[in-house]
Design goal:
Elements (H helix, E strand, L loop, with lengths): L11 H10 L3 E5 L3 H10 L3 E4 L3 H4 L11 H14 L4 E5 L9 H15 L3 E5 L5 H9 L4 E6 L5 H4 L9 H17 L3 E5 L3 H10 L4 E4 L7 E4 L1 H4 L17 H18 L10
Parallel strand pairs: 1-2, 1-8, 2-3, 3-4, 4-5, 5-6, 6-7, 7-8
The chain binds 3-methyl-2-oxobutanoic acid.
Length: 271
């Protein structure tokens, strides 16, 4: 990772200070060098090398197939691009659920081989031993509660989680536990906004929401979704800041026409 002078890096402590100061945290996913360079230069606080790479980069239906090696490949490319943002890497399905020793060696591989700054793990009390072991090694951990896509076959659907009191209470308890054992932040995915506000008030660590309303400490979106690259994904929580699907389609069509008509390359575009 190149270190640029005059760039104040975002750290886990910066995020904590932002929560205390009431400043909202911005987070986007990133999976490759070129996109991560633009995201970093835009001033985003956190880049998440999400296991959503399994969907948007590799075309899988779920996040389950992506491997630890593939996550490290994506994370390394992102780290090479970044000068300011905090880079957090999802631990992929199967790399930490077995036991805490396996979880620690997966986290160490991510940190050592990619140069990232932290890992993210889906789950609460059921993975607390693994989180603790990783934290003990000095690796910062971001939690992830609510809709946890690695458990999609247990849930059965991607609908809003924790609408019932029992699940909501369990989520609050899990958030408190993640704070107690030392996670530096928690992602809350697709839960009622009212519950997310409650969690953000009850813990001191930053709560980053996706489909969890505006009462939390920051927001995260999948970059391909917010750019409108995938025109088939339109959940209620998603705000599209562009329609790159249409713009890219238009550019590709113009290029095809120019090649076919012989218009490209012209005299100035050759040697
Ligand atoms: O993998 C991912 O992109 C995520 C975000 C949706 C939070 O975990």
């Amino acid at each position: 990772m190149s270190v640029h002078k005059n760039v104040k890096r975002v750290t886990t402590h910066t995020l904590h200070e932002m929560k205390v100061a009431g400043e909202k945290i911005s987070m986007l996913t990133g999976y490759d060098f070129s996109m991560a360079r633009i995201i970093d230069e835009s001033g985003i606080d956190v880049i998440l090398v999400g296991d959503s790479a399994s969907n948007v980069m590799a075309g899988h239906e779920t996040t389950l197939p992506i491997t630890l090696d593939q996550m490290i490949y994506h994370a390394s490319a992102v780290v090479r691009a970044v000068n300011r943002s905090l880079v957090v890497v999802d631990m992929p399905f199967g790399s930490y659920q077995g036991n805490s020793k396996e979880a620690l060696s997966s986290a160490i591989r991510i940190m050592k081989e990619s140069g990232a700054h932290a890992v993210k793990m889906e789950g609460g009390r059921e993975i607390s031993e693994s989180i603790t072991r990783i934290l003990t090694a000095g690796i910062p951990v971001m939690g992830h509660l609510g809709l946890t896509p690695q458990s999609i076959y247990k849930f059965g659907t991607y609908v809003v989680r924790a609408k019932e009191e029992e699940e909501a209470n369990r989520l609050i308890e899990d958030a408190k536990l993640l704070e107690e054992i030392g996670c530096f932040a928690i992602v809350l995915e697709k839960i009622p906004a009212e519950l997310a506000v409650k969690v953000a008030k009850e813990v001191q660590i930053p709560i980053i929401g996706i489909g969890a309303g505006n009462g939390v400490d920051g927001q995260v979106l999948v970059v391909h979704d917010m750019l409108g690259i995938n025109n088939e994904f339109n959940p209620r929580f998603l705000r599209k800041y562009n329609n790159l699907y249409d713009q890219m389609m238009q550019s590709f069509k113009e290029y095809i026409n120019d090649v076919r008509s012989g218009d490209f390359p012209n005299d100035k575009e050759q040697y």
